[in-house]
Amino acid sequence: MEKNQSLPSGEIKKGFLGIIPARYASSRFPGKPLVDIGGKTMIRRVYEQAKKCRSLSEVIVATDDDRIFNHVNSFGGIAVMTGSNHHSGTDRCAEVARLHPGYDVIINIQGDEPFIDPEQITKLTACFNDPDTQLATLVKRILTEQELHNTNSPKVVINKLSEAIYFSRATLPHVRGQEPENWLEFHIFYKHIGIYGYRADVLQLITKLPVSPLEKAESLEQLRWIDNGYRIKVAETELETHAVDVPEDLEKLKFDI
Predict the structure, then answer these.
(1) Alpha carbons 211 and 221: distance in angstroms, whole number
(2) What is this structure's pTM?
(3) How far apart are alpha carbons 154 and 179 in whole angstroms?
């Protein structure tokens, strides 16, 4: 099979294209997509979960590594080789979208969440029932003080239109006059679930934007979009996600297998 020629020729490509960015090189966990989890690699588990989502017309793994490309093809999945100089999964998705034009919406599915629930993907795609939706993502209500003040878990501030108006590693908003350990009693806080949806044309536009001051300060790429006036629709999920960032995170997944 030729690289980047994985989709059947003549196929009508409309609706939602799911893309799973997958890098082999990772400073915190090299080779993470190919790690074995209960007899299957992580990337295979993510791919199979995504394929269960009936909202997606197709699912493609986007990688810059031959080992991942060949492995995905070996279990019958579709993979595309992309450039190795991308700074984010969004950039990698944009390249794949250019190679496979015709889809209305691109869904960026995290490659390190082997047990992502297809319902979460469906909930995200439903945001695009509104023709004005440019970008979309998921949030989950924060229920514990530990999670509330965890700087590794970005928080989302949402307006009355269910749009994200800010993302931060800090705990926002600040509840004035109350001790931080009591904030959950006085306000509803949300954490960000890192799955994105983009209108196909908007995806190409946002990847051409320069890094913004807010993005640089928080190291959160979605702030670049807000900084430039793009609107991010938000859907709330009650389902938890279990990302694998470091090898130790694999121990937390045993109950899911």
Answers:
(1) 8
(2) 0.90
(3) 20
